[in-house]
Amino acid sequence: MADYNQTAEQAAPAGNARRDYDLRPWLAKLQENGRLAVAKPGQALRFGIAGLANRLDGDRALLAPAPHGAPEAAVISGLLSRREWMAEALGIAPDALLREFQAAAAKPLPWRVVEHAPCQEVIHEGTAANLETLLPIPTHNEHDSGAYITAGLLICRDPKTGIQNVSIHRLQVSGPHELGALLLPRHTFSYFAEAEQSGEDLEVAIVVGASPACLLASQAIVPIDVDELEIAGALGKAPLEVVRCHGKSIFVPAQSEIVIEGRLLANTKRPEGPFGEFPQYYGPRADRHVIAVDCITTRVKPLFHTIVGGGLEHLILGGIPREATILNTIQSMFPHVRNVHLAPGGTCRYHLYIQMKPRQPGEVKNVILAAFAAHYDIKHVIVVDEDVDIYNAEMVEWAVATRFQADKDLVLIAGAQGSKLDPSTDEGFGAKLGFDATVPVDAPPMKFKRIAVPGQAEIQLDAVLEDVTLSSWLAE
Ligand code: MN
To answer: pTM of the full predicted structure?
Structure first.
């Protein structure tokens, strides 16, 4: 094990990295207002941490310092399990989140290379780069095949153009120096396919403990030649500071907690899975890609971020960038559509709520068809008026209950392409359903007017309420 002499202060002399490129200030902020639960040392990595994280899901983030077998590290989870938290971490108003994300994806900001970085304070090479002894990697669900890295940004470079790609993959710990990877046929896969064709491995870096901006940017649905780290820069409104990997020609966010350097092995596949996935079902075991680990660099006392499959943090991280893309697509045809939301109850993939003011009879059905075309994962669409809060599933249900008639307002499409991870489909082949829960364009004004008490929202409860019992008042 080689120790690295640079301290964080020396590494970033300019001190001008935006606070949202570093995870630690966000954790401190969560703690300031009682949103961070801290576990006693020695929590079990097998099921213990995932169980705790699930119990706290959406309520408080979890910090588990010195978990069992890892006295010099901590596990963190649930840091971004509410969309308001994500917005706050990025310094964006919650209702501007999609707009700002759309803007960042449209106009990325190049990163800035620094020489020394916190993520390389400690360096472990060769046999010392042991995943099982260095990192506190939890096992989450009952039938998972073992420990998994779930919040690792996998960064690789296009062998032809050198452009970097960032994506999150589930990574099974297959041995002290080996990870099993699920690569869906997207950007990482196609870079790897290029390398493999010439018989070469593909260099990769896996970044754990990345900032909220980097995590969210990694999920952007953008063309293959867009570097997601530049979207993180645009989101943070300042160039992201990156450092060259210790032994690889890949640049990683300088403020990260842990960087695992390795290679996706050409012409190699080994068993991976089962693993508990976002729809709350297990993804099956199969022969999948293999990463050989060559080096692990960390901060002193690194924080290992884990995202529990199907938890709110998992859903929201995937949901927000999808919403931005889907809203873009729908607005290109229907610019007056105001907002969309992928509801957590529909795993932030399958249920889309659309908010709009319809202008023509029948128009909502066209919007429903546009939504199905925007992403094949979308299975059920509910369109509501602008007086319905689409972040409140009960309000959307109220609109369906009172503004929807099944014989007129339903769109049913049989035999379309859907999500393979939805077990009710036939390997992704399934039905789509759309609900027009908007008020008819020609309805009389009072018929669908929602009742309201004037001034209700403005009442300051603390200023009005007091701690007096009925009996003491009666006795006065
Ligand atoms: Mn990409």
So the answer is: 0.91
